[in-house]
Specification:
Distance between the termini: 53 Å
Number of strands: 7
Strand order of the largest sheet: 2-3-1-4-5
Helix content: 40-55%
Radius of gyration: 20 Å
Largest sheet: 5 strands, parallel
Number of helices: 14
CATH architecture: 3-Layer(aba) Sandwich
Amino acid sequence: MENIFIHIGYPKTGTTFLQEKVFPTFSNVKYIGKSNSINHAIYSKLYEYVFFRKDIYFNDLVKYFKKVQEKNLLISEEDFIFNSLRFSQHSDSIHYLVSLKRILNIFNELDISVKIIVTKRSLVELLKSVYSQSYTNFYSLSKDTNNFNDFINRLLVTNETNSNWRNFLDAINNDKLIEDLKELIPAENIIVNNYIDFKENPQNFINSFFGKHYIFKKNELDITNIDFNNKTNTRSNKNSKDYKTNDNLLFNKLLNIKNVLFPNLKIKSKSIKKKLMKIKIGKSKTINLSISNEQERLLIKKLSGLPIRNNEI
């Protein structure tokens, strides 16, 4: 193994599509991530070691990665960032630097340089996507976050003493996150791309970007059978102002109960999850995701480190 690539998102930048349709097709690449049943066992151990601090798996992971025969190792997990952005009154977020330091501890044992792949997205669209995706099981559970407008205003007035909001502010800021990564690895090993390039022409993006960084040679990837039109979120309307939640799914209702009573319990059975996801109770809720130009201006100001006066909000 010569190269290690860790793809950390951002979440909601085509990550699931890449994990399901693209990454498993790379030749001469050992892919570890979601939607890869072949390597699911080692992926589960890696996830629990990184995010649940199951240090018991450390030696197993080092031994496994030492034996990888492929030229490149590609790990894709958007929860490195997503877990910095999701929180509720029952569960705290995890800062991305904490999680990344844990996975880098494994590869420090191998003496192989690690490259981190980051896909940037515009602030407003990222906020809308993260909020809507996390609404049912996180933000809806707290009074000051169960309305998008209140959530934005709460974000504007928050101070750095609350770790959940501090983690959110760090993670939602593309530039801050990329600067923080330089604390962990050399700047030249941070590979940055933009979601809009993938969204507008995914075929060119995949060939040019991943080929450029030597994850595969261009003639090693056959993407002719991939349906690039199947990337639309059907629960968002065209102007991205309204979002139909999935809070009426039995799985999500049970998950919220679990998060309150048994926060550390992990649901491992995919078959049970799929069955519960098909059962609906009542109608789903539609949330409004409108954000004013003034709120956007103040958010940019706050993320730039400039103070916001109370009379501005």
